[in-house]
Description:
Layout: E1 7-9, H1 16-26, H2 30-34, E2 37-45, E3 48-51, H3 53-66, E4 69-80, E5 83-92, E6 98-108, E7 111-118
Parallel strand pairs: 2-7
Antiparallel strand pairs: 1-4, 2-3, 4-5, 5-6, 6-7
Protein name: Nuclear transport factor 2 family protein
InterPro entries: NTF2-like_dom_sf, SnoaL-like
Domain SnoaL-like: 18-112
Amino acid sequence: xxxxxxxxxxxxxxxxxxxxxxxxxxxxxxxxxxxxxxxxxxxxxxxxxxxxxxxxxxxxxxxxxxxxxxxxxxxxxxxxxxxxxxxxxxxxxxxxxxxxxxxxxxxxxxxxxxxxxxx
Length: 119
C-alpha cells in the first residue's frame, strides 16, 4: 500500500481504538472517548482546535449536548498503518439538518494523536 493512497476497508477493519472512540462518541460516553487519545492529542472540529485531553474532554462534553442527531458510518479508508478515515452521515437539528463528515485519524502508540472532522 502506498503511503498516500487511501484504500477502502470494512468498518470492522478499523483499529480497535478508533472503533472504541466512535462507539463512545455515539453513546455520549465522554469518559471512555477521552481515554482513546494521547495526552497531547489534537482535535480539529468546526474550525476550532482542541489540544490535550482536558480540552478534548470539554469539546466532547459540549458536542454531546449541543445538537440531537443520528450518525451512521458509511465508509472507512486506510492510508497507512497510522492514518484512517471514517465517513459518517449525520441527520439532526443542527444547521442544514444533514451532512457527511470525514473523521481523519492519526494514530500513535495505539491511541489517537490527531483527529480532524470535516465535510
